[in-house]
Amino acid sequence: METRQMDSPKSDPRMEGWLYLIRSNRFGLQYSRKRYFILEENCLKSFKSKPASEADAENPLRSATIDSCIRVTDNGRESFSRKVFFIFTLYNTSNHNDFLKLGASNPEEAASWIRSLQGVAMQQGSNSKRRWEPYIHPRLNDPKNAATRKRSVDWTSSATMHVDAMTSDVIAPSQWKIFGCKNGLRLFKEAKDNNSQTSNDFPAIMAVGVIEGACEAVFRTVMSLGLSRSEWDFCFYNGSVVEHLDGHTDIIHIQLCRDWLPWGMSRRDLLLRRYWRREDDGTYVILCHSVIHNKCPPQQGYVRAWLQSGGFVVSPLNQGKECVVKQMLSIDWKLWRSYLPKTSSRSMTIRMLCRVSALKELFRAKGGDQFPVEFLTGEVESIQASEEQTKHEGGLMEQQDDKKEDANSMINDAPVSCSSSLIGLNDASDEFYDVPEPLEDKRDTNPQEEPQLHPNLSTAANFVKKLHGLLDSNATRCYGSTLQKDSTFNTPCTWAASDPSLFLVRGRNYLKDNEKNKAKGTMMEMVGADWLQSDKREDDLASRPGGIVQKYAAKGGPEFFFVINIQVPGTSAYNLVLYYMTRTPLEESLLLERFVNGDDTFRNSRFKLIPYISKGSWLVKQSVGKKACLVGQALEVNYCRGKNYLELDIDVGSSTVARGVVNLVLGYLNSLIVEMAFLIQANSQDELPESLLGTCRLTHMDIAKSISVDSLNNS
Q: Which portions of the sequence form the region Disordered (predicted)?
């Protein structure tokens, strides 16, 4: 299915091609309708067939206006009527009743549409107050019928985190050291951390090779669990999807064959949580780690190995004609060490990594652009199970929906019925967009495999530790002081300011040479942090009485606070709150003053975060990345402006991709050192060079040490 992108004489982006409109019938069953779409200037048009002339292109079946209030989110893979689509959703940030769910037949088409739609929305910033125009048939677009139009709500606002896996905005040493070459692959081992106090019996090993094929084809081949996988994966015997969590995450079970294992060794299998995403530059990231799942207990005849971290990174090369494939594994094979040496585990891991070489030969033999059909069928069998039970009802309803749509297109003055609405027929259709949150008692990692942060303490040491805990619990706490500061970076569950020179920002001549330089300092000083737990969403924490912000407000001084409230939803909601302060008048920094007093559209287009995992497993480092992202373009941000502060309430749950990354990070949180930098993006010459607002370093955070908001309010 071809999608074309071209430039009009006015240099406005134009996209056209076939997409699938995703709808819901009155029973809540989702189905797809194939339509031809044209994106021209700021208008998205839909047709039942490809327009034969420019005159036909002026009479669309439906149309919508794209302005700066529109967000485009990546929902990943979904299945309807035994077809797999790559879904993306357009929604209005000021009115969640207005949304449009579309599907493409492959991830590259979806990425092209997302990029073009986001570009159009960004260009319409000057018209940010224009309201979203509902996506309706033009002959039914009568003002007197607008009041009768029914809509339902979609609360699944998932977005793509713009993190480039191949480039970095952080200056950091390489974590890999080459130790050999085999079958045309370079082999690397993870460099030892001199500051680490724990030993790893299963070090990470990575294989790197170049494949003559497009990234998308390699991605689909690696994701397939069908019979075609046996053409390159000599370790593979059988595979299935145990549970489909969302468009980017699933639980898979893989049984390994015995042929390549050492003599006398029992068969192994793996139960993995698999997460994937596509980067802006066309890189595909597939991350896996072992989990425990009640739907797939250990099976007779198999010993379940434990994958601590692993996955693939597929990056484009030579204008997309080739790609660089990296596979990393850190795996416990559950060997009996009494009769097998430690080197057996390492040699088995290296042999498994040689699958990249087999994948390379497969693409060389098949011409490079073919991918397995099983990706479109067998890969989603678990998703199809519920559809089979309602296939007959769904088919009847789809026929009725088509008849109603055709009938409505012939009516000029009749009120708009629910069936003609873009949103669908069921007022409760938003229930199909909910992504189940992981339960608190479910762990993504085996507790026995988690590294111990502290050695075993003696009885006296335990007594002292408990005494410190009692002192901490009895201490008076307020907003802005629940997380302790430790500039030595040695105490767990503490914060400190990171070195600004770790991060790269746009230089004075960035518009000419695209060069970034080391940051020389920060505009604000980090003065406090909170690590909070609540049973509901907590907004505008800076306004809470008794907090650090309100204490300074009562004094009437020149201090101004910039508060970043990162909200992690779930059965228990967590808030990481960072407090930055400056005594310099805002007027002395025009960009900061414009950001603080500007509108939300401007703020969403400028606020950037640079993440960096300075200590942690490869799995977490790869999932987070080291590339700056525009937070407001990826997540929903609520801005709270007070007398002496601006607070940004960032909802991580508004993005499927971001939520998957954060859930992964939470599983390894107490073994990580997380560093972040925040800044306002400079787009014009008078705004350059960029300056960091502030930095932060979080050392070995612990969910168990989060402070209850209720107890904080009572104190």
A: 433-454
Q: Is the pLDDT of residue 551 over 60?
A: yes
Query: How much is the pTM?
Result: 0.70
Q: Which two tokens stand for residue 147?
A: 């009041």
- Per-residue pLDDT of 429-457, as tens digits, reads 333 323 233 443 433 434 333 333 344 44
Q: Is the pLDDT of residue 202 over 60?
A: yes
**CA proximity to 161, closest of 532, 665, 640:** 665
Alpha-carbon distances of 70 from 31, 76, 116, 158, 258, rounded to whole Å: 24, 19, 12, 13, 53
Instruction: Give the pLDDT score at 163.
Output: 35
Distance between CA atoms of 518 and 506, rounded to whole angstroms? 9
Ranges of H-type helices in 107-240? 107-123, 143-146, 215-223
504: which residues sit within 8 A by CB, 6+ positions away?
Answer: 168, 169, 170, 171, 516, 517, 518, 519
pLDDT of residue 372: 57
Q: What is the pLDDT of residue 476?
A: 55
For domain 183-376, give the CATH number.
3.30.530.20
Q: For residue 44, what are the β-bridge partners?
A: 39, 64
What does the alpha-carbon distance between residue 628 and residue 168 come to, in Å, rounded to a whole number? 8
**What's at 672, amino acid-wise?**
L
Q: Which helix (H) or strand (E) holds 680?
A: strand 673-680
| CATH (residue range 3-150+392-433) | 2.30.29.30
pLDDT reading at 82 higher than 50:
yes
Reduce the DSSP state of residue 489 to 3 states and report it. coil
Is the pLDDT at 170 greater than 90? The verdict is no
Phi first, then psi: give them for residue 465, nearest 5 degrees: -65, -45
All structural domains of the chain with their residue ranges: 3-150+392-433, 183-376, 477-714
